[in-house]
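Chapter summary example: a protein plus uracil.
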Amino acid sequence: MERLQKLIAKAGIASRRKAEELITSGRVKVNGELVTELGTKANPSDVIEVDNQRIKLQDKVYFVLYKPASVISTTDDQFNRDKVVDLIHEDEQVFPIGRLDYDTTGVLILTNDGDFANMLMHPKYEIEKEYYVKVKGLLRKDASKLLARGLRFEDEIYKPAKVRNVKYDDKKENTFLNVIITEGKYHQVKKMFLSLGHEVVKLKRVRYGSITLDGLYEGQYRALKPHEIKTLYNLANNKS
Ligand code: URA
């Protein structure tokens, strides 16, 4: 048995406080009976109605998607472009944790668990995000040092980032590398390299915390395993 307001909040209809208001204002029924008392408990299997509409209690679900290019991470778009949420064929309504640009590919975690999403996105937990990047030009030699110090660009401050596996294509004058950041600011990787004088021409997120693209092809997704969810909690808790 759980408090009625908690069950209503879990269904995603309202916050717990708003759910209390729904109850006290006589808009909630349990198994056909009007309930206005706040202490009331109910079972998830009970028929709970708000304004005579049965609420649907959703389990918490967690997926990792290999986001392809040319889909947007937001849940609505004025240009009616394809959305990442349309690639997830499940009963539960999920939303992405953070965003990847329209042209960025790679790891995107989706869930209906708002607390989990807020935890992973909170800057204080410094969850690592690793990107495989192709930049125009031969990367300036001091790039790793500058990125490791942290950057200031266009009124934004970027925390220190790590660079790995730098490979130069001398003929085509491109550079390939991995960069690891702990924030999720708008166009962050593109802006960081732009501040060093390099345009990012390809961007793929290869890791989010402990979650990689292993076993997935572009456009495909899978449920996270309980131990993977636990590891993400642990990564955050180790930083708190
Ligand atoms: N940084 C960017 O510039 N774009 C992304 O999509 C993700 C990180």
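Key point: The chain has a mean pLDDT of 93.
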